[in-house]
């Protein structure tokens, strides 16, 4: 059976760290917690679980801190988490089972990362990340911010999920501005950005509502033609969102359509295009796009997946559109499918009342 080192970097995580470490303490053979300048009880909490609590002077470089943590590991494989991540009981059991049977030929294990949820606890935004990596391969983290772990070789996709449980402190303005400030400092210093930097700087600008500047960097990223295809698609989607915020409907459409040149339409793209036709009451054209959103299979994709656009949302819109063209029975079927995902949704409930009245008078 393999051994596992947990490697983490932390700062002021007293609110969430214990739940994170508790969820993996029975799985990991050692825990290495690297603190980058906590002023709360983070280090004291970490010391309840391990004596390997180390300090690292913060230099505005996440990769440097993560690589330092990796260098301290002694086990066969390294598991990395953030302090606001947990493994739920089902996923703990899956990881325990994997630990017992994992073949040493595997260089890395990718796991699903759930980072947003609806009011019913269903994941709404997920993607895959390489979470468990063979120590002897000496994989490195790259990039000062929005860093990534450069992994290659035999990668095993597992059905294990990491659940993100955001701290209430994460809305603090200093925390939310941190990445943007790091990028701005690099711009001021005249640093040449990689395609990945351009993309993630665009994301930070968009999130802080600097829409025109975000569009500029997304376009610069796309012009390099050297980005990961999933990032290229996301850049187009995010540009569309920026144009919508700016009130430019035509360019929003152009950005959505541009995403299709990179791969099949993502469900979010299909739904947004469907929305545009639905707003104009062009229901038959809208139906084409909503149907496509349901049909595209991206289950094993490493890219971002917003489940809302491939589950209840297109079904709810198909209900409206089919009603609009007189296909009442089909509309009813789609409303029932939407209800499977959102049993207490007020729009679904309203539709049921409409259908009840319609069928009663039929």
From TrEMBL:
Keywords: Transferase. Residues 5-123 form the Glycosyltransferase 2-like domain. The keyword Lipoprotein does not apply. GO terms for molecular function: transferase activity. Pfam families: Glycos_transf_2, TPR_8. InterPro entries: Glyco_trans_2-like (IPR001173), Nucleotide-diphossugar_trans (IPR029044), TPR-like_helical_dom_sf (IPR011990), TPR_rpt (IPR019734). The keyword Transferase applies. This is Glycosyltransferase involved in cell wall bisynthesis. It comes from Virgibacillus chiguensis.
